[in-house]
Write a sequence for this structure.
Protein backbone atom coordinates (compact mmCIF):
# COMPACT_ATOMS: atom_id res chain seq x y z
CA UNK A 1 0.00 0.00 0.00
CA UNK A 2 1.35 3.42 -0.99
CA UNK A 3 0.30 6.73 0.55
CA UNK A 4 -0.59 9.14 -2.26
CA UNK A 5 -1.40 12.87 -2.30
CA UNK A 6 -3.66 14.12 -5.11
CA UNK A 7 -3.76 17.93 -5.36
CA UNK A 8 -6.96 19.08 -7.09
CA UNK A 9 -8.46 15.82 -5.81
CA UNK A 10 -12.07 17.00 -5.87
CA UNK A 11 -11.94 18.21 -9.49
CA UNK A 12 -12.98 16.35 -12.61
CA UNK A 13 -9.75 14.41 -13.18
CA UNK A 14 -8.60 14.46 -9.54
CA UNK A 15 -11.72 12.61 -8.34
CA UNK A 16 -11.13 9.85 -10.90
CA UNK A 17 -7.50 9.53 -9.76
CA UNK A 18 -8.58 9.29 -6.10
CA UNK A 19 -11.12 6.60 -6.95
CA UNK A 20 -8.77 4.51 -9.08
CA UNK A 21 -5.84 4.77 -6.62
CA UNK A 22 -8.10 3.78 -3.71
CA UNK A 23 -9.46 0.82 -5.72
CA UNK A 24 -5.89 -0.32 -6.24
CA UNK A 25 -5.48 -0.55 -2.45
CA UNK A 26 -3.62 2.69 -1.75
CA UNK A 27 -4.15 5.28 0.96
CA UNK A 28 -5.19 8.53 -0.74
CA UNK A 29 -5.27 12.14 0.46
CA UNK A 30 -7.20 14.67 -1.63
CA UNK A 31 -6.05 18.27 -1.25
CA UNK A 32 -8.26 20.97 -2.77
CA UNK A 33 -9.42 24.56 -2.23
CA UNK A 34 -12.76 23.85 -4.03
CA UNK A 35 -12.35 26.66 -6.56
CA UNK A 36 -13.63 24.48 -9.40
CA UNK A 37 -13.83 21.14 -7.60
CA UNK A 38 -16.87 19.91 -5.72
CA UNK A 39 -17.47 17.62 -2.75
CA UNK A 40 -20.10 15.90 -4.94
CA UNK A 41 -17.24 14.40 -6.99
CA UNK A 42 -15.70 12.59 -4.03
CA UNK A 43 -18.61 12.07 -1.64
CA UNK A 44 -18.91 8.41 -2.68
CA UNK A 45 -15.33 7.84 -1.49
CA UNK A 46 -15.76 9.40 1.96
CA UNK A 47 -16.76 6.17 3.70
CA UNK A 48 -13.45 4.59 2.74
CA UNK A 49 -11.17 4.71 5.85
CA UNK A 50 -8.13 4.96 3.56
CA UNK A 51 -9.38 8.22 2.03
CA UNK A 52 -8.69 11.63 3.61
CA UNK A 53 -9.80 15.06 2.49
CA UNK A 54 -7.88 18.29 3.16
CA UNK A 55 -9.10 21.81 2.34
CA UNK A 56 -5.95 23.70 1.40
CA UNK A 57 -4.61 26.05 -1.26
CA UNK A 58 -1.45 24.86 -3.05
CA UNK A 59 -0.10 28.41 -3.17
CA UNK A 60 0.63 27.94 0.56
CA UNK A 61 3.18 25.36 1.79
CA UNK A 62 1.83 22.03 2.96
CA UNK A 63 3.58 19.24 4.86
CA UNK A 64 2.67 15.57 4.85
CA UNK A 65 4.45 12.20 4.55
CA UNK A 66 3.54 10.47 1.29
CA UNK A 67 5.18 8.21 -1.30
CA UNK A 68 3.73 9.88 -4.39
CA UNK A 69 2.20 13.23 -5.36
CA UNK A 70 -0.10 13.79 -8.34
CA UNK A 71 -0.06 17.58 -8.82
CA UNK A 72 -3.34 18.44 -10.51
CA UNK A 73 -4.47 21.56 -8.67
CA UNK A 74 -5.26 24.25 -11.25
CA UNK A 75 -8.47 25.35 -12.97
CA UNK A 76 -8.47 23.80 -16.46
CA UNK A 77 -11.34 25.44 -18.30
CA UNK A 78 -10.65 28.78 -20.07
CA UNK A 79 -13.65 30.41 -18.34
CA UNK A 80 -12.31 29.47 -14.91
CA UNK A 81 -8.60 30.06 -15.44
CA UNK A 82 -9.31 33.50 -16.96
CA UNK A 83 -11.57 34.51 -14.03
CA UNK A 84 -8.54 35.44 -11.91
CA UNK A 85 -5.46 35.13 -14.14
CA UNK A 86 -2.98 36.19 -11.43
CA UNK A 87 -4.27 33.45 -9.15
CA UNK A 88 -3.99 30.96 -12.02
CA UNK A 89 -0.29 31.79 -12.46
CA UNK A 90 0.23 31.58 -8.68
CA UNK A 91 -1.50 28.20 -8.54
CA UNK A 92 0.67 26.74 -11.30
CA UNK A 93 3.96 28.30 -10.24
CA UNK A 94 3.76 28.55 -6.44
CA UNK A 95 1.81 25.29 -6.34
CA UNK A 96 4.63 23.58 -8.25
CA UNK A 97 7.29 25.13 -5.98
CA UNK A 98 5.43 24.07 -2.82
CA UNK A 99 4.76 20.54 -4.02
CA UNK A 100 8.29 20.09 -5.41
CA UNK A 101 9.73 21.38 -2.12
CA UNK A 102 7.61 18.81 -0.30
CA UNK A 103 8.67 16.03 -2.69
CA UNK A 104 12.33 16.99 -2.18
CA UNK A 105 12.02 16.92 1.59
CA UNK A 106 10.18 13.60 1.82
CA UNK A 107 11.79 11.99 -1.29
CA UNK A 108 8.41 11.34 -2.92
CA UNK A 109 7.82 10.77 -6.61
CA UNK A 110 5.90 13.71 -8.07
CA UNK A 111 3.90 13.92 -11.28
CA UNK A 112 2.85 17.16 -12.94
CA UNK A 113 -0.44 17.40 -14.82
CA UNK A 114 0.87 19.52 -17.68
CA UNK A 115 -1.10 20.22 -20.81
CA UNK A 116 -1.20 20.34 -24.59
CA UNK A 117 -1.59 24.11 -24.05
CA UNK A 118 2.21 24.30 -23.69
CA UNK A 119 2.16 23.93 -27.50
CA UNK A 120 -0.12 27.01 -27.78
CA UNK A 121 -1.57 27.51 -31.27
CA UNK A 122 0.74 24.92 -32.83
CA UNK A 123 2.55 25.36 -36.15
CA UNK A 124 3.54 21.68 -36.10
CA UNK A 125 0.84 19.04 -36.55
CA UNK A 126 0.45 16.57 -34.88
CA UNK A 127 2.35 17.76 -31.82
CA UNK A 128 5.38 15.79 -30.63
CA UNK A 129 7.04 16.31 -27.25
CA UNK A 130 10.12 17.93 -28.84
CA UNK A 131 8.02 20.80 -30.30
CA UNK A 132 8.62 23.94 -28.21
CA UNK A 133 5.26 25.50 -28.90
CA UNK A 134 3.77 28.76 -30.15
CA UNK A 135 2.37 30.61 -27.16
CA UNK A 136 1.38 34.27 -26.85
CA UNK A 137 2.97 35.35 -23.53
CA UNK A 138 0.55 38.25 -23.00
CA UNK A 139 -2.74 36.87 -24.33
CA UNK A 140 -5.89 35.76 -22.53
CA UNK A 141 -4.71 32.13 -22.31
CA UNK A 142 -1.16 32.97 -21.19
CA UNK A 143 -1.89 32.78 -17.44
CA UNK A 144 -2.61 29.10 -17.95
CA UNK A 145 -0.21 28.28 -20.80
CA UNK A 146 2.81 30.11 -19.39
CA UNK A 147 2.02 29.01 -15.83
CA UNK A 148 2.09 25.39 -16.98
CA UNK A 149 5.28 25.99 -18.98
CA UNK A 150 7.06 27.45 -15.93
CA UNK A 151 5.79 24.51 -13.87
CA UNK A 152 7.48 22.13 -16.34
CA UNK A 153 10.68 24.20 -16.05
CA UNK A 154 10.54 23.98 -12.25
CA UNK A 155 9.99 20.22 -12.37
CA UNK A 156 13.07 19.74 -14.56
CA UNK A 157 15.14 22.18 -12.44
CA UNK A 158 14.23 20.44 -9.17
CA UNK A 159 15.17 17.13 -10.77
CA UNK A 160 18.52 18.36 -12.08
CA UNK A 161 19.49 20.45 -9.05
CA UNK A 162 17.98 18.40 -6.23
CA UNK A 163 17.43 14.91 -7.68
CA UNK A 164 13.68 15.16 -7.15
CA UNK A 165 11.97 12.16 -8.77
CA UNK A 166 9.69 13.78 -11.36
CA UNK A 167 7.27 12.81 -14.13
CA UNK A 168 5.56 15.21 -16.56
CA UNK A 169 2.35 14.29 -18.42
CA UNK A 170 1.12 16.60 -21.21
CA UNK A 171 -2.61 15.98 -21.12
CA UNK A 172 -4.75 16.66 -24.22
CA UNK A 173 -8.49 17.57 -24.04
CA UNK A 174 -10.11 15.04 -21.72
CA UNK A 175 -13.84 14.61 -21.12
CA UNK A 176 -16.17 12.36 -19.16
CA UNK A 177 -18.43 12.11 -16.11
CA UNK A 178 -17.82 14.69 -13.33
CA UNK A 179 -16.88 17.52 -15.67
CA UNK A 180 -18.48 20.61 -14.19
CA UNK A 181 -21.74 21.24 -16.10
CA UNK A 182 -21.01 24.98 -16.32
CA UNK A 183 -17.27 25.01 -16.73
CA UNK A 184 -17.52 26.18 -20.34
CA UNK A 185 -15.51 23.38 -21.94
CA UNK A 186 -16.80 22.27 -25.26
CA UNK A 187 -17.92 18.69 -24.51
CA UNK A 188 -19.82 19.59 -21.32
CA UNK A 189 -21.28 22.75 -22.93
CA UNK A 190 -22.60 20.92 -26.00
CA UNK A 191 -24.05 17.99 -24.04
CA UNK A 192 -25.77 20.20 -21.45
CA UNK A 193 -27.11 22.52 -24.19
CA UNK A 194 -28.39 19.55 -26.23
CA UNK A 195 -30.07 17.90 -23.24
CA UNK A 196 -31.78 21.17 -22.26
CA UNK A 197 -32.82 21.89 -25.87
CA UNK A 198 -30.82 25.13 -25.84
CA UNK A 199 -28.81 26.50 -28.77
CA UNK A 200 -25.45 24.78 -29.33
CA UNK A 201 -22.80 27.52 -29.24
CA UNK A 202 -20.07 26.92 -31.82
CA UNK A 203 -17.30 29.52 -31.49
CA UNK A 204 -15.84 30.76 -34.78
CA UNK A 205 -16.74 28.75 -37.88
CA UNK A 206 -16.35 25.41 -36.08
CA UNK A 207 -13.50 24.27 -38.33
CA UNK A 208 -10.94 24.35 -35.49
CA UNK A 209 -10.00 20.85 -34.35
CA UNK A 210 -9.43 19.09 -31.05
CA UNK A 211 -8.60 15.49 -30.10
CA UNK A 212 -10.87 14.23 -27.35
CA UNK A 213 -9.78 11.62 -24.85
CA UNK A 214 -12.13 9.74 -22.51
CA UNK A 215 -11.19 10.09 -18.84
CA UNK A 216 -10.54 6.35 -18.20
CA UNK A 217 -7.88 6.27 -20.92
CA UNK A 218 -6.20 9.33 -19.43
CA UNK A 219 -6.12 7.87 -15.91
CA UNK A 220 -4.56 4.63 -17.17
CA UNK A 221 -1.86 6.49 -19.15
CA UNK A 222 -0.94 8.83 -16.31
CA UNK A 223 -0.77 6.05 -13.69
CA UNK A 224 1.49 4.07 -16.04
CA UNK A 225 3.72 7.14 -16.30
CA UNK A 226 3.90 7.50 -12.50
CA UNK A 227 4.94 3.83 -12.26
CA UNK A 228 7.38 3.93 -15.18
CA UNK A 229 11.15 3.37 -14.83
CA UNK A 230 12.90 5.94 -12.62
CA UNK A 231 14.83 7.59 -15.47
CA UNK A 232 11.82 8.11 -17.74
CA UNK A 233 10.67 11.60 -16.78
CA UNK A 234 8.63 12.75 -19.77
CA UNK A 235 7.26 15.11 -20.84
CA UNK A 236 4.98 12.64 -22.56
CA UNK A 237 1.78 13.33 -24.49
CA UNK A 238 -1.29 11.56 -23.10
CA UNK A 239 -4.16 12.05 -25.51
CA UNK A 240 -6.33 10.45 -28.15
CA UNK A 241 -5.07 11.14 -31.69
CA UNK A 242 -8.62 10.98 -33.14
CA UNK A 243 -9.09 14.54 -34.44
CA UNK A 244 -12.51 16.18 -34.93
CA UNK A 245 -13.69 19.64 -35.91
CA UNK A 246 -15.84 21.41 -33.33
CA UNK A 247 -18.68 21.34 -35.88
CA UNK A 248 -18.39 17.53 -36.14
CA UNK A 249 -18.58 17.32 -32.36
CA UNK A 250 -21.69 19.53 -32.28
CA UNK A 251 -23.43 17.34 -34.89
CA UNK A 252 -22.46 14.14 -33.09
CA UNK A 253 -23.86 15.40 -29.79
CA UNK A 254 -27.12 16.48 -31.43
CA UNK A 255 -27.51 13.07 -33.10
CA UNK A 256 -26.62 11.07 -30.01
CA UNK A 257 -28.98 12.99 -27.72
CA UNK A 258 -31.78 13.17 -30.31
CA UNK A 259 -31.95 16.87 -29.44
CA UNK A 260 -33.87 19.54 -31.35
CA UNK A 261 -31.21 22.12 -30.46
CA UNK A 262 -30.00 24.44 -33.24
CA UNK A 263 -26.34 25.27 -33.87
CA UNK A 264 -25.52 28.98 -33.52
CA UNK A 265 -22.19 30.71 -34.13
CA UNK A 266 -20.47 32.97 -31.60
CA UNK A 267 -17.12 34.82 -31.84
CA UNK A 268 -13.95 32.75 -31.55
CA UNK A 269 -12.19 33.53 -28.24
CA UNK A 270 -8.77 35.25 -28.40
CA UNK A 271 -5.82 32.94 -29.21
CA UNK A 272 -8.09 29.89 -29.57
CA UNK A 273 -5.79 27.22 -31.12
CA UNK A 274 -6.83 26.24 -34.67
CA UNK A 275 -5.77 22.63 -34.40
CA UNK A 276 -4.60 20.10 -31.85
CA UNK A 277 -3.67 16.44 -32.11
CA UNK A 278 -1.13 14.47 -30.10
CA UNK A 279 1.63 12.32 -31.52
CA UNK A 280 1.58 9.50 -28.96
CA UNK A 281 4.47 7.36 -30.23
CA UNK A 282 6.50 8.09 -27.07
CA UNK A 283 3.67 6.94 -24.76
CA UNK A 284 3.18 3.82 -26.88
CA UNK A 285 6.86 2.94 -26.71
CA UNK A 286 7.62 3.82 -23.08
CA UNK A 287 4.32 3.15 -21.34
CA UNK A 288 2.86 0.51 -23.70
CA UNK A 289 -0.22 2.71 -23.61
CA UNK A 290 -2.70 3.97 -26.13
CA UNK A 291 -6.31 5.11 -25.74
CA UNK A 292 -8.99 2.45 -26.20
CA UNK A 293 -12.30 4.30 -25.96
CA UNK A 294 -13.57 5.86 -29.20
CA UNK A 295 -15.34 9.22 -29.11
CA UNK A 296 -18.83 7.77 -29.68
CA UNK A 297 -18.50 5.35 -26.76
CA UNK A 298 -17.10 7.99 -24.41
CA UNK A 299 -19.75 10.53 -25.42
CA UNK A 300 -22.48 7.96 -24.71
CA UNK A 301 -21.24 7.48 -21.13
CA UNK A 302 -20.86 11.24 -20.64
CA UNK A 303 -24.34 11.97 -21.98
CA UNK A 304 -25.80 9.41 -19.55
CA UNK A 305 -23.93 11.12 -16.68
CA UNK A 306 -25.22 14.62 -17.54
CA UNK A 307 -28.72 13.30 -18.19
CA UNK A 308 -28.85 11.87 -14.64
CA UNK A 309 -27.28 15.00 -13.18
CA UNK A 310 -29.79 17.31 -14.85
CA UNK A 311 -32.81 15.14 -13.96
CA UNK A 312 -31.75 15.08 -10.29
CA UNK A 313 -31.10 18.82 -9.99
P1 LIG B 1 -10.85 20.91 -12.59
O1 LIG B 1 -11.01 22.39 -12.64
O2 LIG B 1 -12.06 20.05 -12.57
O3 LIG B 1 -9.94 20.46 -11.37
C1 LIG B 1 -8.94 21.28 -10.81
C2 LIG B 1 -9.01 21.12 -9.30
O4 LIG B 1 -7.97 21.92 -8.70
C3 LIG B 1 -10.34 21.61 -8.72
O5 LIG B 1 -10.83 20.67 -7.80
C4 LIG B 1 -9.96 22.93 -8.04
O6 LIG B 1 -10.82 23.27 -6.96
C5 LIG B 1 -8.54 22.65 -7.62
N1 LIG B 1 -7.74 23.86 -7.42
C6 LIG B 1 -7.65 24.94 -8.25
N2 LIG B 1 -6.82 25.85 -7.74
C7 LIG B 1 -6.36 25.34 -6.55
C8 LIG B 1 -5.49 25.81 -5.55
N3 LIG B 1 -4.89 27.01 -5.65
N4 LIG B 1 -5.26 25.03 -4.47
C9 LIG B 1 -5.86 23.81 -4.35
N5 LIG B 1 -6.70 23.32 -5.26
C10 LIG B 1 -6.95 24.07 -6.35
O7 LIG B 1 -9.93 20.52 -13.86
P2 LIG B 1 -9.48 19.10 -14.41
O8 LIG B 1 -9.98 18.99 -15.80
O9 LIG B 1 -9.77 18.04 -13.44
O10 LIG B 1 -7.90 19.33 -14.51
C11 LIG B 1 -7.01 18.80 -13.52
C12 LIG B 1 -5.57 19.09 -13.95
O11 LIG B 1 -5.31 18.48 -15.23
C13 LIG B 1 -5.27 20.58 -14.10
O12 LIG B 1 -3.97 20.84 -13.61
C14 LIG B 1 -5.33 20.80 -15.60
O13 LIG B 1 -4.50 21.85 -15.99
C15 LIG B 1 -4.82 19.46 -16.13
N6 LIG B 1 -5.32 19.22 -17.49
C16 LIG B 1 -6.63 18.90 -17.73
C17 LIG B 1 -7.07 18.70 -19.03
C18 LIG B 1 -8.49 18.33 -19.34
O14 LIG B 1 -8.83 18.25 -20.53
N7 LIG B 1 -9.34 18.05 -18.39
C19 LIG B 1 -6.17 18.87 -20.10
C20 LIG B 1 -4.86 19.23 -19.82
C21 LIG B 1 -4.43 19.38 -18.52
N1 LIG C 1 -15.93 25.84 -28.03
C1 LIG C 1 -17.11 26.07 -28.75
N2 LIG C 1 -18.26 26.22 -28.04
C2 LIG C 1 -18.33 26.13 -26.69
C3 LIG C 1 -17.13 25.88 -25.97
C4 LIG C 1 -15.95 25.75 -26.67
O1 LIG C 1 -17.10 26.15 -29.99
O2 LIG C 1 -19.43 26.26 -26.14
C5 LIG C 1 -14.67 25.66 -28.79
C6 LIG C 1 -13.52 26.52 -28.32
O3 LIG C 1 -13.55 27.78 -28.97
C7 LIG C 1 -12.32 25.67 -28.73
C8 LIG C 1 -12.82 24.25 -28.58
O4 LIG C 1 -14.24 24.32 -28.58
O5 LIG C 1 -12.00 25.90 -30.09
C9 LIG C 1 -12.36 23.57 -27.30
O6 LIG C 1 -12.65 24.42 -26.21
P1 LIG C 1 -12.40 24.01 -24.69
O7 LIG C 1 -12.65 25.24 -23.87
O8 LIG C 1 -13.16 22.79 -24.37
O9 LIG C 1 -10.86 23.58 -24.63
P2 LIG C 1 -9.49 24.24 -25.15
O10 LIG C 1 -9.79 25.42 -26.04
O11 LIG C 1 -8.77 24.63 -23.92
O12 LIG C 1 -8.87 23.14 -25.91
Amino acid sequence: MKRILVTGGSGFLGSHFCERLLNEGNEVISLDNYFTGEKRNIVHLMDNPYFEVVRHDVTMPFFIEVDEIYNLACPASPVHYQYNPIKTVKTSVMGAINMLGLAKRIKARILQASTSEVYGDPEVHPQKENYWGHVNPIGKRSCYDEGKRVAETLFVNYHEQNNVRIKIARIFNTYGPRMHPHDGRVVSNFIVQALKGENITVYGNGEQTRSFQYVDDLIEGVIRLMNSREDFLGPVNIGNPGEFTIMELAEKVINMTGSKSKIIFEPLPEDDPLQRKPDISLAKEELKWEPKIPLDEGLKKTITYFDNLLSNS
In short: The CA atoms of residues 4 and 129 lie 27 Å apart.
